[in-house]
Amino acid sequence: MGTRHESRELALQFLYQQDAQSKYPMPVPQAFEAFWNLQEDKEAHAASRQFAADLARGVVEHIEAVDAKIKACTQNWEFHRIAVVDRNILRLAVYELLFREDIPPVVSINEAIELAKKFSTEDSGRFVNGVLDRAKESLSRPLRTSSPKAAPPNLSAGRT
Q: Core-most of 29, 44, 47, 145, by most CB within 10 Å?
């Protein structure tokens, strides 16, 4: 498994845990550190840790914009009724689509579909694909490449 894929799995698990505990009860750096300490095989995931933390922190920092985009793309679905794991898969992918120009949109979409297939129901992959297909329509950047000037945001600078 690739490091970035593993990072997305860890970020998803963190976001799911925080969502299930009623919306980020502590600042993200401390919450992620507590989450990390609960991991059984920390050494196996060490290379994935920083990217996972950056993704999780980015989702939390942009949660209003991310959730608004998901709501706009899920007509006929009440946001709070989307399964918790699917909602957080969508949050992760929509954050990447909107705020991570260093990641090609097709990569974010494909990774989200794979996460849905692994962690959710049989139909979740199609649901996630449909929502993200709508979300990518408003992008003004290439779908298969990262933006030429894109650099990953510096989210590890101690912000909460």
A: 29
Give me the residue spans of the domains in the chain.
Answer: 3-136
Taking the model in full, what pTM does it have?
A: 0.85
Q: What is the pLDDT along the chain (160 residues), one digit of tens a residue?
A: 578 999 999 999 999 988 887 655 677 778 888 888 787 776 766 778 889 989 999 999 999 999 999 999 998 889 989 999 999 999 999 999 999 999 999 999 999 999 999 999 989 999 999 999 999 998 888 777 876 555 555 554 444 3
Neighbours of 68 (CB within 10 A): 13
Q: Give 36-50 as a 3 state SS string.
A: HHHCCCHHHHHHHHH
